[in-house]
Each structure stands twice: as C-alpha cells, then as structure tokens.
Amino acid sequence: MVGLVIVSHSWKIAEGVKDLASQMAPGFDGIRAAGGLEDGEIGTDATRIMEAIQAVDQGDGVVILCDLGSAIMSAETAIELLEDEEGKYRIADAPVVEGAIVAAVEAAGGEDLESIIASAEDARNESKL
Amino acid sequence: MSRVYECLTKIGETITENKDFLTDLDREIGDADHGINMTRGFHAVAEKVPSDLEDIGAALKKAGMTLLSTVGGASGPLYGTAYMEAGKVMAGKTEMTAEDFKAALEAAIAGIQKRGKAVKGEKTMLDALIPALDAYTAAIEGGADMGAGLEEACKAANEGIEFTKTIIATKGRASYLGERSIGHQDPGATSATLTLETIRDFVKA
Lengths: 129, 205
Description:
The complex is a heterodimer. By secondary structure, chain A is an alpha/beta fold. Chain A has a single domain (3-125), classed as Phosphotransferase system, mannose-type IIA component (Rossmann fold), CATH 3.40.50.510. Chain A is 47% helix and 15% strand. In chain A, strand 1, helix 1 and strand 2 (31-35) form a beta-alpha-beta unit. Chain A is globular. The relative contact order of chain A is 0.22. Chain B has one domain: Serine Threonine Protein Phosphatase 5, Tetratricopeptide repeat. Chain B has helices at residues 3-17, 19-29, 34-48, 56-70, 75-89, 98-116, 126-141, 146-165, 187-204. By secondary structure, chain B is mostly helical. Chain B is built from 9 helices and no strands. At the A-B interface, helix 2 and helix 3 of A face helix 4 and helix 5 of B.
C-alpha cells in the first residue's frame, strides 16, 4: 500500500489535513503529518519529513503533499537523505488539502503510486465554483 | 574544544549579533524571519555538534543536519545542504588547507544550487558566494594563503551584496515583489557574507 505524508509549515495545518483526509479513508493508517518544527514553531523540518516517510513506507511508495516554499525544499532534502534511488518517494504537484483527500481515498483503495500522483495532481484543475 | 567547533560557534555568534539586522532586511522583501531562523539554527548547532569533535567533515555534516531540522525557513535546507556537502569534502580530515577550503566552498555552492534550483543573478546568497569563490580561487592560485584568500573572498561577497540591491528577485518570497525588490539587499547574501567574514577573522586570528 502507498503511504502519504502531509508537509506544512504549520503543525496544525498538517495535522488538520491528515484528519480531514483520514475521515475520507476510514481504517487507512498509512498517512502521517510532518508539520512545523519540533518545538511547534512555524517552519519545515527535513528530518521530521524523513521520519514520516519511513513510518508509512511499506515498499509500494510514498506520496508527499507540501504547502509552499521551503516545504518543497525540505521534502526534497528528506528524499535525498533517504537515498531513494528507485524514485518511490514522490512529491505531488498538487494542492495540499484536495490532493491529500484524493490521495488518501486512492491509497486506501490500493491504487499504485503513479495513479495516485496523477489523481492528486488532477485535483489542481478542479474548479470550486 | 576543537577548532571546527569553535569556528561554528563563532559563526553562530555573528549570526546572533546580526539577528535583528537580518530580520529587518527580510522584512523589507520577505517574511521577516531570516535572522530569527538562523539564530535558532545556530543555537542548536552549538548544542548538537560535540564540542570536542576533531573530524571537520563529521562536524560540518552534523551542523548541516541540525540546520535542516531547526532553521524552519528556506535557509534551513539551503544552508543545511551547503554544510553537509562541505562536510563530505572534509570527511575524516582534522585540518583544512587553502585547497580544502576551496573544494568545500565549491561543494557548498553546488549544494545550494541544486537545492534552490537557482543561478547567479537571482538576488540570492549565490550572488555573494559565487564571486567569493572565484576571488578566493584566483587568490590562492596566485600564491595567497587561506587568510589572504578569504580577504579577497569577503571583498567579492560584499560587492555581491551591493549587486543584489540592483536586481529583481526571481526566487523565494521576495519574487512576489517583482520590481519593488530593487534597492534592497538580499538577506541570504548578507548572512552568507557574514559567515565568510567570520571564517576569515577566525583563520587570521
């Protein structure tokens, strides 16, 4: 099963998105939040992201959803620290809330890494009105 | 206390002394956290790097890992990667030659470029660091020692800071300001220059 990691500068956003996405995928526990710094301050922490990836990695890949700016750089650093040569840890170019919900539903349904990434990235194109 | 630990703590002291200055620069064109973030990061470096660690590579790597997880903003992965890449070059060494410093700075810059996907001329720390490396290289190839090379590097880095005032930011938070970023010096180029100046003073002391 593919795992999911939510990265945000804010601990509350990451936890909240995880809760929201988990509600859509009951029983799916392959999702972790990596928000803020260890002391709760606003920011992103590559080592926390790395640990979250390891926690949800069951061998089928991990999709990472990021908010903005340094979240991407920290996630890329985390992937590099894990020496992911097969490319199984991937950052989705997707909105964090909508992307996480789509990804959680599909991951819980047993979809593979590529299709989850594609669906999460598709969430970018959905009009809200 | 090892020399490398002492140098890292001196960098931390300089950053801490300039915390408000760096944050004010960042307030003008960014999110007003550069000094605060870097100070937090270097306080953690002083705590987490063992003070008696003689292996320069291991100390730089530990400093880089610490910055990655404690700085919080974009300078975390950027400086974190820079220190870790410099650490790879210095692995197992307990002394640094003028050539070593060149190789370490080169690796650090390559790390920043890879992480930030930036080039020179985008109003970033690279606008101080790349000219600094060029000036340092020219100096030591002309026979200068590490201290004299760093003197040239710091001059070039300061000119780099001045250059950042004249250009538009295209990377990071400052890029939202477009032309309004002209006239302001880049906080990252400033903290990078402060770092080089601290190393210069440490080497020459």
